[in-house]
């Protein structure tokens, strides 16, 4: 196989592999940024979990679930290959976000369920964590802005000199 032939075969595969939907990017960024967050802050931005349970090691599991009614796309199956099916152009319909907390800190965030979207993993889970990412961005902006000064810009204290 010539180099040009290999390029024709590999280039489309590489381009497709590099694609990620906005939902996938949100879900992965959330995994990086939310781990380490205080549990109370996480619940303030993500909401109260549908279920929670304390484990024998003292950590707590919080469960968030989301179901999408319509996902679009086309489902295909090939009965001559043992009924193996796949979707084209569709997103998953269900996301289960599992958050583990120890000593009031998020120590892990995982996604399960039928949660992949058209060109990426875990994209269906983005709505469950998007609010926390926005809150973290606001906190970053507040931390980066200079503190408000109590004195006016001119440096006067409100009395006129005599």
TrEMBL record:
UniProt keyword Signal, yes or no: yes
Region (Disordered): 143-162
Position of the signal peptide: 1-22
Domain of life: Bacteria
Keyword tags: Signal
Name the UniProt record assigns to this protein: Uncharacterized protein
Protein species of origin: Rhodovarius crocodyli
